[in-house]
Design goal:
heterodimer, A: 119 residues, mainly beta, Immunoglobulin-like, 7-stranded mixed β-sheet, 11 strands, B: 110 residues, 3-stranded antiparallel β-sheet, 9 strands
């Protein structure tokens, strides 16, 4: 069974750093890209960026470039989304999703990680 | 890039059909047959229901269908059921790489 299991909810203060994770199982991890998608409270979905775990090639939405970093450790089938300095506006649910190629559709999604940034 | 344009809400009675739209531009919806639709119930992850404009993943009811004409994609749900009440999002691959989502449409089953 294909599964994407994300790390648990986080509560952080503005300016703190954070890394959340997404572990894939039930499929050959290197065959699929992983993207991150943000959903702010009561709002729609926004594509953050994507990574090819094979070579760690990444592409970011211009809205998120320079604020987040996506990385992968294929030895443990895990992709990460990290922030160096969180802002209150980063408060959101973050989903990971797998897709077969850069342009392909996301067929399986993680359960989501709620990030709350508050002083 | 601006989000794809979706109506904020749509409604229908059980057994009826509804169609909702997703409008983009030449660099996304009109330029590629890579339009997907997702269903999201409150507090849940999105679920893929249509990919590549009109294809259904295994296990998705054939009451869901998709189409595209020019820069507008459409999702039709026939034989509405109470469990179809959810938010629906479209997305498209874009010429600059990556995906663009619509703002979402809330479906109410009356």
């Amino acid at each position: 069974e294909v599964q994407l299991v994300q790390s648990g909810a986080e509560v952080k203060k503005p300016g703190e750093s954070l890394r959340i994770s997404c572990e894939g199982s039930g499929y050959y991890f290197n065959n699929y890209w992983i993207s991150w998608v943000r959903q702010m409270p009561g709002k729609g979905l926004e594509w953050v960026g994507t990574i090819d775990p094979t070579d760690s090639y990444t592409k970011y939405s211009p809205s998120f470039q320079h604020h987040v970093t996506i990385s992968a450790d294929k030895s443990i089938s895990t992709v990460y989304l990290q922030w160096g300095s969180l802002k209150a506006s980063d408060t959101a649910m973050y989903f990971c999703a797998r897709h077969f190629s850069e342009s392909d559709y996301p067929d399986y999604w993680g359960q989501g990680t709620l990030v709350t940034v508050s002083s | 890039q601006s989000a794809l344009t979706q109506p904020a809400s749509v409604s229908g009675s059980p057994g009826q059909s509804i169609t909702t739209s997703c409008t983009g531009v030449s660099s996304d919806v009109d330029g590629y047959n890579y339009v997907s639709w997702f269903q999201q119930h409150p507090g849940k992850a999105p679920k893929l229901i249509i990919y590549d404009v009109s294809k259904r993943p295994s296990g998705v009811s054939d009451r869901f269908s998709g189409s595209k004409s020019g820069n507008t994609a459409s999702l039709t749900i026939s034989g509405l059921q109470a469990e179809d009440e959810a938010d629906y999002y479209c997305s498209s691959y874009t010429s600059s790489g990556g995906w663009l989502f619509g703002g979402g449409t809330k479906l109410t089953v009356l």
